[in-house]
Amino acid sequence: MHCPFCRHTDSKVVDSRVQEEGTVIRRRRQCLECGRRFGTVETATLSVIKRSGATEPFSRDKVITGARKACQGRPVTDDQLQLLAQQVEESIRALGQAEVDAHEVGLAILEPLKRLDEVAYLRFASVYQAFDNLHDFESAITLLRSERDAESVSPEPTP
Asked: What is the pTM of this model?
C-alpha cells in the first residue's frame, strides 16, 4: 500500500472497522515516512467463472439485470430487485468459495425470485434449468402449486 501523499510503501494500521455484515473492513492508516493518515477499504473478492473460462468479479448489477428481464411487465420494484441481488450474493458467499461458476449464480437467483414473483421465476428457470418442452413448464408449475399448497396448510394450534 503506497501512501497517497508521499508514495512511501510502509504504513501502520491505526484503526480497523468491520462493515457491511463483515464483508468490508475499513482501515485507518498512518504513513511511517510523512506521518499523514489515510483510509483504505478491503473487501473479499468473489469471482465468477464464465462459460468461456474467463473470470470476472461478481456483480450485483448483473444479477439485477437478469432478474429484471424475467420480471418485465411484472409488479416488481427496483428495491425488491436490489434485495434479491443482496440475497443472491449472501448465498453465494455462504458457499465459502472465492470462485463460483456463472451457472451457480443463475441457480442461486431461483429461490429468492420464486418468493418474489412466480411468473418471473418460471421465465428465469426456463433458461437456467434448460426447459426443453411444455412438460418441463408443466412440471415446474405443478411443483410451485404443491409448494404453495403445503405453505397454506398450517398445523392447528394445540390448547
From this structure: 0.70
